[in-house]
Amino acid sequence: MTENYQPEAVIFDLDGTLFRAETILVPAYHRTFEQLRKEGLYTGDTPPEEKILGGLGMLLEQIWKRVMPDASALVYSRANELLLHYQLEELKQGTGKLYAGVETGINILYEQGYQLFVASNGLENYVKEVIRYSGLAPFFKALYSAGEFQTKSKVDLVRLLMETYSIRSAWMVGDRSSDVEAGKANGLYVVGCNYSGFGQEEELDGADLIISSFDCLVNEIMKTSNR
């Protein structure tokens, strides 16, 4: 179902949709490579930031293959640990930022009675801590991550979420092709976010609606409501 129907739930991607991931990712990324070099697990210069920023929305193992294609599984595992550690440190220091309109918009949707969820390809602790430190935790019914549920694709993650909460109608909101794929495969109305600047324009091909700000999303959802 892809018509512009009134949803009972809204399922959000996290990075590039709600949260400006680069605000904590970039400093954590450089700190990660500094530590990898100290531990003798990596030599040479830190790969360009664009390598990891361009991989946002992918599973972490896919991201590291983009960044360090010749590294071992051991290095990938250690890089995961370090990156998460440093990102959480950045969060605690108040470095992380939401996109404009997210805090107000999420509150409006919650007050209107919509069930709100996050479905992310990130690690469990990352997803939960970003939402907690951003002050959004009270508004979300559940936070689903590939790290927690060990899903191999966002299609599977969203399907699991919908089955668990018996969701019949929802909008899928995200900035990457994996979000479009997950929404379409699960029969959802798909909203593509093009304000992060990290994905390619064609990644949102197939979305039912493309928005340039979070405020646009809230306005579109409210149009479907007769409340």
Notes on the structure:
It is built from 10 helices and 8 strands. It has helices spanning 22-38, 49-53, 60-67, 73-92, 102-111, 124-133, 146-149, 154-164, 177-185, 214-223; strands at residues 9-12, 19-20, 97-98, 115-120, 142-145, 170-174, 189-193, 209-211. Helix content is 46%, strand content 14%. The chain has a 6-stranded parallel sheet, with helices on both faces. The protein folds into 2 domains: 9-20 and 97-223, Rossmann fold; 22-92. The chain starts with 8 loop residues before the first strand and ends with a helix. The protein has 227 residues and is α/β, with parallel strands linked by helices. Helix 9 links the parallel strand 6 and strand 7. The mean pLDDT is 92.
Topology (elements, then pairings):
Blueprint: E1 9-12, E2 19-20, H1 22-38, H2 49-53, H3 60-67, H4 73-92, E3 97-98, H5 102-111, E4 115-120, H6 124-133, E5 142-145, H7 146-149, H8 154-164, E6 170-174, H9 177-185, E7 189-193, E8 209-211, H10 214-223
Helix pairs in contact: 1-4, 4-6, 5-10, 8-9
* CATH superfamily descriptor of the largest domain: HAD superfamily/HAD-like
CATH classification, class level of the largest domain? Alpha Beta
- Helical proportion, percent range: 40-55%
How would you classify the helix and strand content by structural class? alpha/beta
